[in-house]
Design brief:
Structural class: alpha/beta
Distance between the termini: 28 Å
Helix content: 25-40%
CATH topology of the largest domain: Aspartate Aminotransferase, domain 2
Number of domains: 2
Strand order of the largest sheet: 1-9-8-5-4-2-3
Largest sheet: 7 strands, mixed
CATH superfamily of the largest domain: Type I PLP-dependent aspartate aminotransferase-like (Major domain)
Oligomer: single chain
Length: 383
């Protein structure tokens, strides 16, 4: 008898189709494939959807974080409070400007910074906080700003995972002085690579636009519009952080898909929750009281009451052909930042050791989700 081979279920998969193919083909036919009119259209459309005053498209979210720190005036001698419970880019960005990342612990339920965890990490040199909407769970930005604004500390929202999530009835980032976004394939809205900086300050947006393009006084679009290109000057050191029109064309299609993407992920998460809520020792991430999550990552915590630990559950899922992933990393436990560990981070260390990310993507079928659920249920009855 031949052995039945199960197809692999990936943890995430972008939702791309013929509309994106057609959009890219149109850009290629136009002859303008670098940063140009599609990027400008994507910026204005994204700003409208996220209720942001200004949007500046860039090459990825990490470069958006870097530019956010630069335009906010953060530099050598400054401390920047960051979560360790985040992808390493959140902690890396302050080092790019010569500042010192200072790790704060997170809330056990949401995985996000809170006023209390930030307050415990603030120093006399703190001039900024980078706060992430971890896995798409919206942070309570209003509460963070009520602490930081009176102290002159700028809050940079790391909304890498946040497109489609809401806080207090508005899109995440709507109340941010400045925020950074990711369009990596693991996010709901993808352009392959790519990112966005949004801000309420026109002077920050204007400077970010210059800095992403080598700090040229005349942009590529302005030079192209004239037969005799105007001379440009370079008044400060800039960067090459541009997005292409090819990427922006994809982003415009993806932006129209966003409501459907969010609805599908929330439906999948609800189905998981109906089962996980009845399994001993397992907890699934949920909406906070102030908002809704897009479930960019649908993570569960494996507690001590579960018959096997997190790694045991991951191994059991893998045996069933299910590619789940370990939960969010703790940056302070890695060599690049271990010398900055500072004070104790018990919640961060518990969550990074006990959480895993379940498969959630638009095309996940009912049968495939059923396989994941069956594997979760049987992981708790292994001998």
């Amino acid at each position: 008898m031949s052995e039945v081979v199960m197809s692999r279920i990936n943890v995430m998969q972008p939702w791309l189709g013929e509309e994106e193919v057609a959009a890219v083909a149109e850009v290629i036919r136009s002859g303008w494939v670098a940063q140009g009119p599609r990027v400008a259209e994507f910026e204005s459309s994204f700003a409208a959807v996220q209720q942001a005053a200004y949007a500046v498209a860039v090459s990825n979210c990490t470069t958006a974080l870097h530019l956010a720190l630069v335009v906010a005036g953060i530099g050598p001698g400054d401390d920047v409070v960051v979560p360790s419970f985040s992808f390493v880019a959140t902690a890396n960005a302050p080092t790019y400007v010569g500042a010192q990342p200072v790790f704060a612990d997170v809330d056990a339920a949401t995985g996000n910074l809170t006023p209390d965890t930030i307050a415990a990490a603030i120093t006399t040199r703190t001039r900024a906080v980078i706060a992430a909407d971890q896995g798409g769970v919206p942070l309570d930005l209003a509460a963070l700003r009520s602490l930081c604004d009176p102290l002159g500390i700028v809050v940079i929202e790391d909304a890498a995972c946040g497109a489609g999530s809401t806080a207090y009835g508005s899109p995440v980032g709507a109340g941010a002085e400045i925020a950074a976004w990711s369009f990596h394939p693991r996010k709901l809205l993808t352009t392959g690579e790519g990112g966005m900086l949004t801000t309420s300050r026109p002077e920050w947006a204007e400077r970010a636009r210059r800095l992403r393009e080598h700090a040229m006084s005349a942009s590529a679009a302005e030079r192209h519009a004239s037969v005799l290109a105007p001379p440009e000057s370079y008044d400060e050191v800039g960067f090459n952080y541009r997005m292409t029109d090819l990427q922006a064309a994809i982003g415009l299609v993806q932006l129209r898909r966003l409501p459907e993407l969010v609805a599908r992920r929330r439906q999948l998460a609800k189905t998981y929750a109906t089962v996980i809520d009845d399994l001993p020792g397992l907890r699934i991430v949920a909406d906070p009281e102030w908002g809704t999550t897009n479930f960019q990552s649908c993570w569960i915590e494996v507690g001590p009451d579960h018959p096997v630990d997190r790694d045991g559950v991951l191994a059991h899922l893998a045996e069933a052909g299910i590619s789940a992933r370990r939960g969010i990393m703790a940056a302070h436990q890695h060599a690049a930042h271990s010398h900055r560990a500072g004070g104790p981070l018990p919640i961060t260390e518990r969550l990074t050791a006990s959480t895993l990310i379940l498969p959630v993507f638009h095309q996940l079928s009912g049968a495939e989700q059923g396989r994941v659920i069956d594997a979760l249920v049987t992981s708790g009855v292994r001998s």
